[in-house]
């Protein structure tokens, strides 16, 4: 397709996506405002101020969403790669290590948490799995969060994972100098684009904040669109205003063809394909909580009065005094001046407010999910209650889990495609258990054999290595952990709330200790959940030694004890032998003396 035709098609798609989602994006922006505590319109605030009615906000939505985001954080799990073929069983651990290395190095957990929040509030979110070069010019897999208000997609897509979308993309604003450095061949076009597009219109996709354009700062809007043809292969194009900057087939490969690096997910999809989150259904109840609470407070502090004409000298002054807790009003003699009772209205508002709060508490994270149902303090009872309460949000958690799997698979695809050179990765941050894994290695067969028999007895190792050295094939180079040749399945398992179980086990041990059962102090420290600097504390208790060093020291002390006992036994044997020899000599001397006496007599 020619550049002009391609640019025309892409421009139509972007305009189509923008026009079809104008109202849904406004509703999503309102959902975000409610989460942020902006729950009154300007007109409502003005009306309340004219009435003298307080503007109160009891942001129960934020508490609900914050609990769900916290739930995601404590349920994080690590990926595990399982081999599809028997010959890949040994190398599947290397695939697992590579996945975990990328995920931790790129803050995958943080990106997933941000996407989860966008799902709950605005209704959808996404991330990109791309590649970049580090300072050593090595290709690294890069994960990048894409805010929901920078994403556009095919409005005909109806799947929660956007798997049926023909196109999707993102709109990014950047400074002109940054854009010129990134696209040096299009500097002139970018400058023209900055003059045309450097004006905010208040829409979702416009630059933020809006005042940045009045600061004489040149900004450029870059649109990146990923689209696929009839065969399912993906291509991309980057353009600005009416200029095509870059285009071509997707550089990312999978076993099924080219791939799109964008991984999108939505919470709920309505009949007209509108995406929405959990906040949308909470908004009407939140409005009633705020307005009924405001009305209740207003009724408590405001009083209606029945009075005759001319009962007071100044009605405005009387109103001010009525608003004071110690107000004083002078009434003309013979005139009626009495407050109207509103107790029934106050009680009615109070009861309705309690009912609506109870209804709202049952939405999203309910009492069972938060572990507050019932009075049982058992950790397993709380865990069972939470698991039952998660049924209501099981659909959302399942979609988040599917998003996670797609992210892991995309990472594995990038690793297999771009990690072709030999490299070593560190798979743990524990300085005491530092472990490095070599990928795409070429080593002599005898070296690989030596690694495999490292756990055999030394005598057997020497025998095997002696035989192997006589075989000329032992010097041939073989591949170890070659990523491109591995065929694995990626599994993500949901983990139980181990913190709750650990706390329960620790409480039981403490109860046993209080009952008189003796435990070493370091055992209690090791079982205490959430204790900071636990390892340093254990080291000080053990005299600055690690568990391995303490065990080695104990073994050395045991050997020294045994050696000392052997020396004592040897000394005792020598003493016994000396005593026996001396006794033998004394017996012989006594016999000689007796024989001599007999001969004399």
List key phrases describing it.
601 residues, alpha+beta, 5-stranded antiparallel sheet, 3-stranded antiparallel sheet, 19 helices, 49% helix
Shape annotation = flat
Let me know the number of strands: 20
Major sheet size, sense and barrel closure: 5 strands, antiparallel
**Mean pLDDT, rounded to whole units?**
77
Tally of contiguous helical segments: 19
Global Rg: 39 Å
Tell me the β content: 15-25%
Structural class category: alpha+beta
Please give the alpha-carbon distance between the first and last residues: 142 Å
**Low-confidence parts:** 495-499
What does this molecule look like?
Among the domains are: 416-485, no CATH class; 498-541, no CATH class; 545-601. The strands form eight sheets. It has a five-stranded antiparallel sheet. The protein has a three-stranded antiparallel sheet with strand order 3-2-11. Strands 1-20 form a two-stranded antiparallel sheet. It has helices at residues 3-20, 22-36, 42-51, 60-74, 92-105, 108-121, 176-182, 187-197, 279-301, 315-322, 343-361, 379-389, 394-418, 445-452, 458-469, 498-514, 521-527, 534-541, 547-600; strands at residues 80-83, 124-133, 139-146, 151-153, 167-175, 219-228, 234-240, 243-249, 253-254, 257-258, 262-266, 268-269, 275-276, 305-307, 337-339, 423-426, 436-439, 441-444, 477-480, 488-491. It starts with a helix and ends with a helix. The protein has 601 residues and is of the alpha+beta class. A hairpin with a 5-residue loop joins strand 2 (124-133) and strand 3. It is flat and about 145 Å long.
């Amino acid at each position: 397709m020619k550049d002009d035709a391609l640019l025309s098609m892409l421009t139509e798609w972007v305009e189509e996506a923008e026009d079809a989602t104008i109202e849904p994006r406004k509703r999503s922006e309102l959902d975000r405002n409610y989460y942020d505590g902006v729950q009154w319109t300007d007109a409502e605030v003005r009306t309340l101020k004219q009435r003298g009615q307080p503007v109160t906000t009891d942001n129960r939505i934020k508490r609900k969403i914050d609990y769900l985001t916290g739930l995601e954080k404590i349920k994080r799990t690590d990926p595990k790669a399982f081999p599809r073929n028997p010959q890949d069983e040994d190398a599947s651990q290397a695939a697992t290590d590579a996945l975990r290395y990328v995920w931790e190095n790129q803050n995958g957990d943080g990106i997933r948490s941000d996407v989860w929040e966008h799902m709950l509030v605005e209704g959808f979110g996404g991330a990109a799995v791309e590649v970049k070069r580090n300072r050593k010019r090595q290709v690294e897999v890069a994960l990048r969060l894409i805010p929901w208000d920078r994403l556009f997609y095919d409005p005909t897509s109806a799947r929660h994972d956007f798997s049926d979308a023909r196109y999707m993309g993102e709109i990014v604003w950047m400074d002109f100098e940054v854009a010129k450095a990134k696209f040096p061949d299009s500097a002139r076009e970018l400058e023209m684009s900055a003059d045309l597009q450097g004006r905010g219109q208040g829409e979702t996709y416009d630059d933020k904040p809006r005042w940045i354009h009045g600061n004489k700062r040149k900004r450029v809007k870059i649109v990146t669109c990923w689209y696929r043809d009839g065969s399912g292969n993906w291509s991309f194009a980057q353009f600005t205003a009416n200029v095509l900057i870059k285009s071509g087939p997707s550089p990312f490969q999978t076993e099924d063809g080219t791939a799109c690096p964008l991984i999108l997910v939505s919470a709920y999809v309505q009949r007209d394909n509108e995406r929405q989150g959990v906040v949308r259904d909470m908004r009407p109840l939140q409005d009633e909580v705020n307005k009924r609470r405001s009305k209740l407070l207003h009724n408590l502090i405001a009083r209606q009065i029945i009075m005759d004409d001319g009962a007071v000298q100044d009605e405005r002054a009387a109103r001010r005094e009525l608003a004071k807790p110690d107000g004083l009003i002078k009434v003309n003699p013979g005139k009626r001046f009495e407050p109207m009772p509103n107790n029934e209205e106050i009680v009615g508002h109070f009861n309705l407010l309690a009912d609506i709060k109870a209804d709202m508490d049952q939405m999203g994270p309910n009492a069972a999910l938060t572990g507050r149902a019932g009075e049982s303090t058992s950790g397993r009872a709380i865990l069972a209650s939470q698991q039952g309460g998660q049924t209501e949000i099981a659909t959302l958690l399942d979609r988040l889990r599917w998003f996670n799997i797609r992210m892991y698979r995309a990472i594995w695809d990038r690793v297999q495609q771009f990690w072709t050179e030999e490299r070593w990765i560190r798979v743990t941050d524990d300085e005491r258990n530092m472990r490095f894994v070599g990928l795409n290695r070429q080593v002599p067969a005898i070296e690989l054999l030596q690694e495999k028999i490292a756990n055999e007895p030394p005598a057997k190792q020497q025998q095997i290595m002696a035989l192997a050295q006589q075989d000329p094939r032992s010097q041939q180079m073989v591949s170890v952990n070659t990523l491109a040749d591995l065929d694995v399945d990626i599994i993500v398992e949901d983990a139980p709330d181990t913190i709750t179980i650990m706390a329960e086990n620790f409480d039981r041990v403490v109860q046993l200790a209080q009952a008189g059962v003796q435990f070493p102090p370091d055992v209690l420290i090791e079982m205490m959940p959430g204790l900071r600097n636990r390892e340093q504390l254990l080291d000080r208790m053990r005299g600055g030694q690690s568990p391995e060093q303490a065990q080695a020291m104990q073994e050395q002390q045991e050997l020294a004890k045994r050696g000392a006992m052997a020396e004592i036994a040897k000394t005792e044997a020598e003493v016994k032998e000396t005593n026996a020899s001396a006794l033998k000599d004394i017996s012989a001397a006594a016999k000689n003396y007796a024989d001599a006496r007999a001969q004399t007599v």
